[in-house]
């Protein structure tokens, strides 16, 4: 999603979102439009398919409930992990904001453990806990490193997070029992591999 109050940014995003086709290209489907179209700049295919739009419109009335349940589950994680050494819990922003809790992403405090984040994730998987990596810092991907010469140490804060971040299960249909299983597995791994 792009949100802007800058008309030039809006126009550029509008142009890039569908193969770089200019606005007049859309008129080719109207009775008075020409079948010809122009690609003004190299663009992308960022428009939504009709089925995606239909699903989104159907889900939209449920959004408040989804956010409320994710918030409740995130609060349960926060309480469960408050006294556990080895995890750095997500921090609140210093301004008024409503968190959607799309992901719950603590940092693995690798300085307090004998394993790194990747091994931590593997240990959880062996305990039947599905975890994700959201996200590796962009400057650490091979394309950006080779294209721009970026190194992990060029962006130390992003590197710090990138080496430690983990996504724990969090979804509206998650039961308290499911979440208790996650908490128990995290606690077990943190204790087993504590320094």
Largest sheet: 2 strands, antiparallel
CATH top level of the largest domain is Alpha Beta
Total number of helices: 7
N-to-C order of helices and strands: HHHEEHHHH
Low-confidence stretches: none
Q: What's the arrangement of strands in the largest beta sheet? A: 1-2
CATH third-tier fold name of the largest domain: Aspartate Aminotransferase, domain 1
- What is the averaged pLDDT score? 92
Which percent bin holds the helix content? 40-55%
Number of domains: 2
How far is the N terminus from the C terminus?
43 Å
Indicate the structural class. mainly alpha
CATH superfamily of the largest domain: Aspartate Aminotransferase, domain 1
Which percent range describes the beta-strand content?
under 5%
List keywords for this structure.
single chain; about 200 residues; mainly alpha; Aspartate Aminotransferase, domain 1; 2 domains; 2 strands; extended
Descriptive account of the structure:
This protein has helices spanning 7-16, 50-59, 63-81, 117-126, 142-148, 156-162, 176-192, and strands at residues 87-88, 107-108. The chain folds into two domains: 7-47, no CATH class; 63-192, Aspartate Aminotransferase, domain 1. Strands 1-2 form a two-stranded antiparallel ribbon. Helix 3 packs parallel to helix 7. The protein has 195 residues and is mostly helical.
